[in-house]
Amino acid sequence: MANLVVDIGNTALKAAWADRMTLGKTFRYQGERMVEFILSLTARQRPDILAISSVRQLSERDVRQFEDECGRLILIDPSRSDVVRSHGFPAYLSPDRASGLIAARYLFKDRGCTVFDLGTTLTVDFLDSSGKYSGGNISPGCRTRFKSINRYSKMLPLIDTPDVIEDAGTSLATSIGCGVVKGIMFEIDGYICQYPENIVVFTGGDAIYFAKRMKNSIFVVCNLVLIGLALIADENEERIS
User: Fold this and answer.
1) Distances (CA, A) of 93 to 72, 81, 199
2) Do 52 and 97 sit in the same domain of this protein?
3) Crossing angle of helices 95-107/224-240, nearest 10°?
4) Which of 79, 117, 220, 224 is the right S-S partner for 123, CB 3.0 to 4.6 Å?
5) Distance CA 207, CA 193 (A)
6) Backbone dihedral region for residue 99 (phi beyond 0: left; psi -120 to 50: alpha; all else: beta)
């Protein structure tokens, strides 16, 4: 059976075909025509299950189109949290956070986890060794911080994420770069120290960038959300069978 899993985030869409827990090629799309992009994938092959997590509300028209293109549609968006709650997570969790935590609980069974999603926002969530959700926090992501500094000041430039981080900035640009990146690193270290016994998991667009700069042992799972969606699809496939 072939399932299609789709994560619609704040800035981009990621999708992959899944055979149970095995993900195939990952597709990435960044643009306004996300529904059309998903339909272009289902046009090539009809999925048995189409599992979508979306941070934005999908219209009833979009939902009907997706239902016509698959055997069964599983949708998690701001107004559809049944799947989130059925896995023991609070309804206020965004669909991508919940899907990633479902994957982390499966991949690191019987271990406490501190899960960082480093994207448009920086989210940190905690699972205890039984898999129970202990709560989590949200702060601005790396690029969001750079953009905020530029937008809300009169003379500070917008800079790219630096390749090299000094201990302290020696110019205006390096002061901003060091301040943002080292600030996030200190933030991460603080959370890791809060639960030192936990497995530390990084995901999101900036996961590899920060994992390379941390002294702690880090598990980087770039497709954590898609893995969680594949798990959800597989569970529903088993129920159908």
Assistant:
1) 24, 9, 21
2) yes
3) 80
4) 117
5) 19
6) alpha
- What CA–CA distance (Å, rounded) separates 98 from 92? 9
* Nearest CA-CA partner of 121 in 10, 233, 37: 10
Distance between CA atoms of 90 and 72, rounded to whole angstroms? 24
Q: Which residues are catalytic?
A: 96
Name the token pair of 173. 């640009």
pTM, two decimals, is 0.90
Q: Which of 120, 123, 122 is nearest to 98 (CA)?
A: 123
Per-residue pLDDT tens over the stretch 74-126: 999 888 888 889 888 998 999 999 999 999 999 999 999 999 999 999 999 99
CB 221 within 8 A of CB 118: no
Q: Coil, strand or helix: which one is 85?
A: helix
pLDDT digits (tens, 9 = 90+) for 143-160: 999 999 999 998 899 999
Structure-token pair, residue 129:
């060794």
Domain-embedded: residue 239: no
Q: Distance from CA of residue 43 to its chain's centroid?
A: 26
Any alpha helices (H) in the chain, and if so which ranges? 34-44, 60-68, 82-86, 95-107, 142-151, 172-194, 207-211, 224-240
DSSP-based three-state secondary structure for 112: coil
pLDDT in tens, 164-221: 888 888 999 999 999 999 999 999 999 999 999 999 999 999 999 999 999 888 999 9
For residues 62 and 99, membership in a common domain is answered with yes
